[in-house]
Amino acid sequence: MIRVLLADDEAMVRAGVSAILASGGETEVVAEAGDGREAVELARAHRPDVALLDIRMPRLDGLAAAEEIVRTVPGTAVAMLTTFSERAYVARALGGGATGFLLKSGDPYELIAGVRAVADGAAFLSPKVARYVIEGLGGADGGGRLAREARARARVAVLSPREREVLGLVGAGLSNPEIAARLHLVEGTVKAYVSAVLDRLGVRNRVQAAIVAHEAGLATP
Questions:
Q1: Domain ranges, residue 61
Q2: Cβ(120)–Cβ(27) under 8 Å?
Q3: Residue pair 167/156 in contact by the 8 Å Cβ criterion
Q4: Which end of the chain offers a freer environment for a tag, N or C, measured as fewer CB atoms within 10 Å?
Q5: Both 44 and 122 in a single domain?
Q6: Any idea what the CATH number is for the domain that residue 172 is in?
Q7: So what's the pLDDT on residue 89?
Q8: pTM across the whole model
């Protein structure tokens, strides 16, 4: 079972999300928090597989809570659950170490799939959020886009051929087990490659690595 910490200041939202996750049959909500500070405390106490956090919460907002959980509870993956109107927070959330960004207005199956993906070590962005991120990468300034692509290609040049291959699959959204199956490797070897790629690129998580992969043209379907 995937153990989840759910944090939202609205009890009805927590009840609805818990019911959706329970319907998937593989997720258990082990703790609920009504604010960001409580979320951090419960994450430390329960060590869940996934912390699912709202952005706008009292005492400590979800973004700050995410950063603290990533820093102090390394075994817990963090995903944000919010509204599309708050998409401006995507960059900060991903920069703070979150590997998922889910929308409250999304399909229930999307929520279940997203929690499963981040628990499995993959990154997951709701389709609308992914489109927003990709548009941000492209930007209106072609020169800026070309400069980012050039910088990304220079960054990945330090990787070995196998590391670049793994990075491309991370960019395509594959989880470690999926990459292992694709490359005929054991999962432990894939984890080692992913860790090495993150370290050599100087990024904090798979989402940031995936962005580099897209900018460098390495993301493969």
A1: 2-133
A2: no
A3: yes
A4: C
A5: yes
A6: 1.10.10.10
A7: 79
A8: 0.70
